[in-house]
Every structure is written in C-alpha cells, then in structure tokens.
Write a structure and sequence with these properties.
Chain lengths: 116, 116, 116, 116
C-alpha cells in the first residue's frame, strides 16, 4: 500500500515550514512534474533501457531512477492534495476507460494503438 | 490509502491481455511519463492556474486534469512494478533528503532554492 | 539569418569525429529535444518569468537560458538534417495553417484558443 | 539558410493581430516549447524510430513530425526574438563548448558521455 495521505501530510508540513505554499500553484506544480519527468527521461536519453529491465540493475543507476521517480510521484501527490483529487478513484476510472478504448480482440500484440 | 498493488495488478493484466508487455521497456515507460506530463502541462500553457486553486474548479477542466494526472501516476506505478521499486520507501527517503538540503532557517519564505 | 546548414555541418562532423552517429536515431533525438526543453523549463519552475522580459535580464540567468535554447535548437537542426526536412518551408506552412485555424475576428484578445 | 528574422516577424504580426503578445511571457513560451516537444516525443513513444531513419519515411508520419518540429522551432524563434538572443551566436558558442567538454580521444565510439 502507498500511504499517500502520510506523504501528502509530510509535503504539506514541508511547504508550511518554509512558507513555500505560495509557490505551489496549479501551473507551477504541473511544471514541476514535467521538469522531473524530463530528469527521469534524461537517464534513458541514449542506449540505456531500450531492451529490458536488467539494464537498470546497477545500484548507482537504480538509485538515480528511484530518486527521479520519487520526485515525480511527490509532485503528483502534492497536486492531488491541493486540488482534492482522489487518486485511487481517478486511476481506476482511467483503467476502465482504457479497457473500453482498446478492446483485446482488436489490439492484441499490436502497437497500432501506440503508433496511430 | 492508495492501493498501488491493486493498480499494478490491473495494469499487469491489461498489458498481458493485449500482449503489450513487450513494449514496456524502461525507456518507453520513462518516455510515456514525459509525454503524459506534457499533456497535463498543456492545460496550463497560458494564463490558467497561475494564481490559485479556484481557477481549476470548473468540472470540465477538472475532469481533464484528473485524467492526465491518472495517466502519469499509472505509468509511474507500472514502472515501479516492473523495476521492483518500493515507492513508499523511496518517497520517504527523498523527503528526508530534501529536508536536509533545504534547512528551514535558510530557506524560509524564499524561492532561492527554486531559482538558483 | 540563421545559417542552419553551417550548424548542421558542424553537428555532423562533431558526431562523425566521435562515432556518435549510431546514437542519433529519430527516437533518441526526439528524446533529447524533450530533455533539453525540460532543462529550459526548470529555469522558470517557480516565480521567475511569469510577468515580463526584464525578469531575465540578469547576465547569469540570461547565459543559462541561451545555453538551454541553443541545446534545443541544435537538436532540432540535427533532427531535420538527418530526416532531410526543410525547416523554413515547414515553419511557413505551419504559420499559414495557424492563421486559418485562429481567425483574427474570433480570437482577438482571448486566450480561448489557449485554454480550450 | 533559415530566415529566422522573416519567421520572427511573421510571429510578431500574428501575435499583434490577435493581441496575444500579453500571453508571451518567458515562462509561458518555455512551457510551450516543452509542450510541443512532448507532442513530438509522443510520435516515438513505443517502437517507432528506435533503429533508423527509414522508419519515418511514410508520408503521413513524416507530415506529423514536420508539424511538431515546426511548432518547437517557432516557439524557440519567438522566445529568442522577445529576449533579443542571437541564435546563431549562442549555437556556435555551445558547439565549441561541447567540443572542449567531450575530447575526441576520450569519447570516440562511446556513449559514456551519454550515460554518465
């Protein structure tokens, strides 16, 4: 289980202690998610990670990936906390919508969805 | 609580049913997070969301924000599931590291961190 | 005038000298453009640059902006060179398409385009 | 040659005609570059373009790539025009800096630069 309430509270206190809540507008948090996503992507800019998951088993690269993934997730949780979005509910709704959009019989084994 | 194991299982089945696991390399999932982060950011490309959270209370824009946020989170969960990353642990570690990096006494009320 | 042929040749030689052409696939260059765009965006993650252009007149921030903008443009030029795309022609075509899409009489003074 | 002055003038008139100059702050244009970079990246989200340049020779995908590349370049030109940045000069400076940073004898044939 991911205790997102605990994480949201830690982030809320973190911002309050530094008086940083003023900077946490919708636009700035969306920007922050994008910036951190770019930092994760940079780790895969060239040949790394094109084939399989063993390529990222080295502890030093693994640590960097974990840190970038955490940065993204923390901003997602912070955004949802400020906007009062129920992440579990919206994720389950999205998976159901995707299942309807990409019926198994039409999309099996094809990246047609992906490339069209 | 966010039941990320449940969501990870749903995503695993979703990919297995369509034989899409082959496309879920580290690089492709990092790319997908970035693409979805760009779609969230697009909603704030111009004047929306610069000031406060009431600006996104309109149901139609709220729905789109929820959908984009879900897309990002689902790819983060999928990545962590494939890489066997404990998201709760790495998030708590990252918050502790940030607290050490930005001591309250030096950064209170300042976006110096932010802009330097 | 921007001598993009000169820049493309410099980049071609740069890659050839280091045998890096092998890494310059369409996907990797598109990834690189996105990574560099994220680095430019990071400079505006919080309060900087929300209002006007005087905010970026400080020489140190200006230098960083110039460097990130150059990184983006160089990867765009490299991509176009590899794909044999005529940048001038596609830019003029795109401006004409935008003019048709956003008629002056319907969009004057409004960020409706932007936010809808 | 890329007539970036001509394109900058077209963009300036385009914005003036619609009274959109007010939206063209440094932060918003940096955001726009990132959003458009994400749209280009989306075309390479899965298997497309991992290997070579023939993969993008199909006219329909080529057209979409050209459009996204144009969107990115136009925002780069608009940003440089507003900030009075000499793109040719900063690009040549950046290539020279990269040549010093990655000496041929140390980096030939290696994506060490890339992955470290």
């Amino acid at each position: 289980m991911l205790d997102n309430q605990k994480l949201a509270t830690l982030l809320r206190n973190f911002a309050a202690d530094r008086d940083w809540d003023q900077f946490h507008t919708p636009k700035n948090l969306a920007t922050s998610i994008s910036v951190e996503a770019g930092e994760l992507l940079e780790l895969f800019q060239w040949s790394r990670g094109q084939k399989d998951w063993n390529e990222i088993s080295d502890p030093s690269i693994r640590l960097r990936i974990e840190d970038e993934l955490a940065d993204i997730l923390l901003y997602v949780i912070r955004f949802a906390d400020k906007a009062k979005i129920d992440l579990q509910a919206v994720c389950e709704r999205k998976i159901a919508a995707n299942a309807a959009k990409y019926p198994v019989e039409n999309f099996r084994g094809s990246d047609r969805k992906y490339n069209e």
